[in-house]
Amino acid sequence: MMAYKMKLTASQEAVLNGSKGDVMARVMETMIRYGELFGAESMVPVTGKYNHLVTSFGLKALGPVYDLMEKLIDAGCTSVQKFTADPRPLDKNVPSSFIQKIVFDHFMYSKQEYYESQLDKLGLLEKDAFTCTCYMDEVGNTPGPGDVLSWSESSAVVYANSVLGARCNRNSGIIDLMGSIVGCVPYFGLLTDEGRKATWLVEIKTTKKPEAQLLGSAIGMKVMEDVPYITGLDKWLGTLDEDARTYLKDFGAATASNGAVGLYHVEGITPEAAEQKRALLAENPKVYVIDDAELKRVYDSYPVIWKNKDARPKLCFMGCPHMSMNQLISWTEKVEKGLKESGNEKVVIPTVFTAAPAVLKKFKETSYAMRLEKTGVIVSYICPLMYMNNPLSASMPVITSSNKLRTYTSARYYTDDEILEQITRGGKI
Known about the structure:
Radius of gyration: 22 Å
Helix content: 40-55%
Structural class: alpha/beta
Largest sheet: 5 strands, parallel
Strand content: 5-15%
Number of domains: 3
CATH class of the largest domain: Alpha Beta
């Protein structure tokens, strides 16, 4: 038995001592060691109805992961909760060349079907439960206030913590599954009241509603892993309605990828800020003022890593994280209007809107689906980031309004208005 400082319950200690087998004991030991690295003194039960896994891709190089999964399956160590998983990396409907497809199918994601079969045995919620926005109503994995989670997908963690009031640390892949298997996670960081205090006061003083992805980028790069308390944004969001939730989805993903934010509070909007107000601020918080000039400075600071900076875009990705239903509808209307004004019938750059399979299913039941199809826009459940990981994709001039995709790949960031201009009219921004 390992030497540990953490105080365990009798049942947790029994598992560690092998009451449920050697593999389960090793899983518990892993969670204990993980917690002690961050100073956790105890474990708390996972209370969310479902879990969410970040590892959804059958990358050929992940042999040790598949071996681990087989050991868990053989030992009967399945997840206590059913779980959703991040988006699939492949979709035949997304444009790719013959050579790109060979790389995808034979050199990158050749283990996709095999890995999905493993996920199914471990407790996958359903066949198409693959999305980074598992918390959307259409998907059904929506935690409640105070629920303790074992998630690791950064954009989902920050949304669950901030907008839903759940409690989850920024875990790593596999740790998310292990926490669900043993049914408990180490108690530290964003699970604690103290860890949810804001050490930054961010004051929004812009003359118009700031671009969600740009604002999130600015805050993420400034506060890094700290918790910000944001004032002045309620002026533009109003209430926590569906539009605000969509805005905060994209905003939070940018804070989490351009920095390492796992929780933010928006004064008058997010649940803990609405209830506790500025009592959420730690003593002597740092202050960051964001005005129009600061957002322009951040935008201008983004490097363009295309080989030819003036290249004509060959592909546009929207939906990282996945788009919501109201985004699909509003963007259908925007694209239609843009095309009408430009005199074009279809988008002039191949464009892919990505969303959860469950959201796409509901969207296809509306009249907007056919309208969007007429514009030439492709809808997909794919993970744009996984597509861009192909070296042949990385060398393409791809544009996006996702600051997460910009951060992790060679895709070039533009604001929503600039994206609309490019895909409906073409020309240089």
